[in-house]
Specification:
Length: about 120
């Protein structure tokens, strides 16, 4: 079973389109986080920018796999990751393969207002 999340939500006469996501690396929402990333979605591509980690922690393969899994949930085709590493600009583009098995997708089906 595939759990896809729509990028469009209709409320009343309005359609809300998800174009920007803030990702936090934390065990429980509301607790202090060890990393944060701003992600912009344009069409079928998500751009990860503004990635900051606490205390010079590295952005691991497991971290990137979580973003790829989110891309699958959002039915994206590509993820573009940009970061400065060792003083050099590095861009990594990854194609998102569709999956029928989204194992790490957890939601409580509520929408929270974040200020």
């Amino acid at each position: 079973m595939t759990n896809l999340m729509s990028k469009h939500v209709k409320v009343g006469e309005w359609i809300f389109e998800i174009k920007m996501v803030r990702a936090l690396k934390v065990d429980q929402y509301g607790q202090p986080y060890s990393a944060i990333a701003n992600c912009n979605i344009n069409g079928d591509t998500m751009y990860i920018d503004g990635l900051l980690t606490k205390d010079k922690q590295t952005f691991t393969k497991d971290d990137f796999d979580s973003f790829t899994e989110f891309g699958k949930i959002m039915d994206l085709k590509q993820i573009s990751y940009h970061r400065y590493q060792n003083g050099k600009s590095v861009t990594k583009d990854v194609m998102v393969e569709p999956s029928d098995n989204l194992t790490n997708f957890v939601t409580d089906n509520t929408i929270r207002l974040v200020k």
